[in-house]
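Forum: Protein Structure Q&A
Topic: Joint prediction for protein chains with partners

I've read a bunch of threads here and the consensus seems to be that you should model interacting components together rather than docking separate models afterwards. I'd like to see that in practice. Below is the full input, 233 residues plus whatever partners are listed. Could one of the regulars post the assembled result?
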Amino acid sequence: DQQVKQNSPSLSVQEGRISILNCDYTNSMFDYFLWYKKYPAEGPTFLISISSIKDKNEDGRFTVFLNKSAKHLSLHIVPSQPGDSAVYFCAASGLRSGAGSYQLTFGKGTKLSVIP
Amino acid sequence: NAGVTQTPKFRVLKTGQSMTLLCAQDMNHEYMYWYRQDPGMGLRLIHYSVGEGTTAKGEVPDGYNVSRLKKQNFLLGLESAAPSQTSVYFCASSYSIRGPGGKNIQYFGAGTRLSVL
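Posted by a regular:
Agreed with the consensus. Here's the joint model:
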């Protein structure tokens, strides 16, 4: 039961353009969403988050949008830079179905390649 | 700032061998977690701890045991390793699992790459 879905395994974008990474979730109990960035041979690092009471959160070049009715969130990176090339994980916090406790549920990740 | 430190970074085991992965955090976090990452599977929670002396099962706990004897340390044990446990293991910690102000943001170690032959 995949409760957080990132349907695009990979994405290629030209440097300077916008990168849009998408994430869908099925569990309406999720109330806090996070994006993590992961370089090869390193652990994931926190990038940006959004509470379910908001529909947008911005931090520099990174903006996360949340559409609760569609159970969809997206991460926008503008402008994209070669150093942004990494795997991006979407994660949702809340009462995970079947778990009975609050946990962080991750998507499978999207590999972003920013081409110079 | 050490943050979350995992040892060892790499390990190769034979089927049936045992080993312990060590995770240490210096951020005074209450919550600690062990995840595994497999190709195309994202991060899956193995076990977690909500405080010293406590442990709880995550999504994929079978074949693993954990202990949290000290607040700063969280150990993951494999009693009898199997090839299906070949994976990259990540430890993480956070102030809380919920709450405002980013208290539920998890901070990760660099990972342990384990191969079971």
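The mean pLDDT of chain B is 92.
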